[in-house]
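Hi P.,

Sorry for the delay on this. The queue was packed all week, but I finally got your sequence through. Input first:
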Amino acid sequence: MKRNWRRFLERLIVAAAVAFFIAVLPLPMWTPRVFLYWQVPAAVFLLVVYIGKLLIDTILFPPKSKK
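Then the structure:
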């Protein structure tokens, strides 16, 4: 059973980059103060949830073989 680990790593890198920019990007002009407080924890939480989804898809649901 072949797993597509390269695809997993590509998506992981993109997700980490998006989470990094969401967490670091300061948007004080239009962002409410409450969101600025929760910006980093929300980005990290969403990253962890997405990584879990990627792992489940990679490990439990291998790509279908083309016939």
